[in-house]
Design goal:
The protein is α+β, with helices and mostly antiparallel strands and 379 residues long. The chain is built from ten helices and 13 strands. The longest helix is centred in the last third of the chain and has 25 residues. The two termini are 17 Å apart. The chain binds adenosine-5'-diphosphate and magnesium ion. The site of adenosine-5'-diphosphate has 18 residues, from strand 6 and helix 2.
Length: 379
Amino acid sequence: MGVRPRKGRSVMTDGVWAAPGRVNLIGEHTDYNDGFVMPFALPHTTVATVALRDDGVLRLHSADVPGDPVELRLADLDPGRRSGDWTDYSAGVVWALADAGHSVPGADIHYESTVPAGAGLSSSAALEVVTALALSDLCELGLDRPALARLCQRAENSYVGAPTGIMDQTASACCEAGHALHLDTRDLTRRQVPFDLAAHGLELLVVDTRVKHSHSEGEYGKRRAGCEAGAAALGVSALRDVPYAALDEALGRVEDPEVRRLVRHVVTENARVERVIGHAVAGDFRSIGPVLTEGHASLRDDFAVSCDELDLVVEASVAAGALGARMTGGGFGGSAIVLTEASRSSDVGKAVLDAFADRSLLAPRLFTAVPAEGARRLS
Ligand code: ADP
Ligand code: MG
């Protein structure tokens, strides 16, 4: 039996759901090239308290955004009429559901989140996935997790207008506690890879630089277009199809030097995902460190999406004895990850904080990331 919607404004709760943010261990800017990624879910979640209503109204409120609840008429939802504020993420999910033939009678949704927003930890996917899961459960839509992720990506691409890949939504919807998710973004094949760093005396620090450079969205679009130009120049449907062994030959066929660097990042980054998977499966977690640092150099020098603050986290942490570090997420600010011996973790963290203080930069926020479970119903 589905939950029967109430008349008009609802005062009762039909349920509570949670969806996590994520860090991406390796595989950056590969998800819109049909490539490989390896995120894991954070313990930080966006929680949605949801009650259905039957009057075609979507009433949205977030404890994390000042202001009164916002009421939208379901019949008015249209990408051409988006508001440009946070409610587009939720409205986009409901619009994408309707567009796929799944009708929602109306809902009151209240959000509360511990995922830092705009920090490269995917608060947007957490918001979308928790909305889609709650509505799918309440309306008995029977959507499986990969389908929910695709629907949320559609909401973000077509309604919010952000041309993101499929990684963030899949991570939030499909990750499992204690595991990283090896995802093939072409066919969405998933493999849960045991990832218990603590058992090996290791820690993964997330360093949120708390900066977001404003040109990031335009630059993201340019990188996407450049990757498509690279694939076209090489006669493949996506850069995923360029094997690492054929990289030098492929680079010789790309004339534009900027596009050539983008191609080199994507092809080597896909190979790095494979190397990290190999180390993780072999239980050789320490060997992952240098691969992360190599990935950072590629994002900094070839893909050109790093920034001074992210470079500083990597330099300071590696100089202080970390096994490896790299920016994570889209870049131009946001967060970096640092793999370190657990016994050195506080020294490494202090070295990063000192490096920022020495340059009079805003103090970053640090926390230890342990792979947590994906989206779920709480009550
Ligand atoms: P990221 O996904 O890396 O956190 P994005 O720019 O993709 O960064 O998404 C951040 C945006 O998502 C915020 O600016 C806001 O519009 C929306 N958002 C995320 N979490 C919440 C929340 N709990 N309440 C309201 N809006 C949120
Ligand atoms: Mg996002």
